[in-house]
Amino acid sequence: MNLLKPYGEIDVLNLYSKIAPYLMDFLKGREIASKTWIPKSKIPYFLNRAGKLGELWIEDFQQINEEFLRLRVKHHLSEVRNMLSERQILLWRYFVPRKYSEFFYATNGEGEGKPIGRIFIDIDRTNLSAEKSLEVVRLLLEMMETQKEEDDEFHELVKSVAVYWTGSSFHIYLFLTSPQPPEFYAEKVQFHSRGVLFKSWTDLWVERVKNKVDFKVSGGHEKKKDHIVIDPSQTPSGKLARVPLGCLHIRNFEPDGVSLPLSEGMLYEDGIVEWLKSVTPEYVVKHARKLAKHLWSYI
User: Fold this and answer.
1) Phi, psi of 27, rounded to the nearest 5 degrees
2) For residue 151, which of 192, 201, 78 has the smallest C-alpha distance?
3) Which of 13, 47, 104, 244 could make a disulfide contact with 164, Cβ separation 3.0–4.6 Å?
4) How many CA atoms lie within 13 A of 7 on its CB side?
């Protein structure tokens, strides 16, 4: 059976239902979102999230079964609505059949002003190579390890660090020992493009990485050609992040990669980027239990 076309038509829920059991803890209490791509449309994709459709949770993926997937092959939702549960209807609306959808979630919950339990840093490479983004990741991890030894506050607040391959580049997560108030983001995480009295962690990391590489590095949320951008802007509540295990990465309306968490050893293997680019959804499903062990920490 074709994992992405289980009954002859595209249905990403077949893939996502298989990796959902390994994401129960990681996504617990965090609203699900999706990014659905529409070829030959003026608007290339649309986002579905709690504010539009109602709240979808990782536990709802337990309602995906063969009968449900078969109904989605040829029918429109309106034709079979009375045969479905409320949760199946919501899954259908979030992940439209016969379209490729990427699997996202609310990093620290939907809505503004909620506590921050995890810091999410996107290593955006735009047109530069993934090898350069990996170089930045390695440097950042070394800096964080040193900071954990030398900075008592950082040591007390940061419980663990994890690294994920997105299908195209990398994400770094810092999991906190306890939820922090919303202002923690502006004080410790937000990148400041201009001088401030007290530099955030990201300000310092960007400054130090710049001094260690022979390509351009910047911080913030703006994509920049010929730059690696260290971007923590999707950390606050109300922002979205890519699910780190089994999420398709779509380019030109077709899958060209899949997300997975990385171990420390994988980060330093020769040729790791080329291998990561070759990873298939089938590989991630087959090894999901082993890969999921690195969701909370790359060590």
Assistant:
1) -105, 5
2) 201
3) 244
4) 16
> Which domains can be identified in the chain, with CATH numbers?
12-106+243-292 (no CATH), 116-239 (3.30.70.3300)
pLDDT tens column, 215-266: 999 999 988 899 999 999 999 999 999 999 999 999 999 999 999 999 999 9
| Spans of the chain, pLDDT less than 50 | none
Integer Cα distance of 91 and 81 in angstroms: 12
Residues 6+ apart with CB under 8 A from 283: none
23 contact partners, CB below 8 Å, separation of at least 6? 58, 243, 245, 246, 292, 295
| Distances 88 to 47, 252, 253 between C-alpha atoms, Å | 18, 29, 25
Please check whether residue 48 is in contact with residue 36, taking contact to mean a CB–CB distance below 8 angstroms. yes
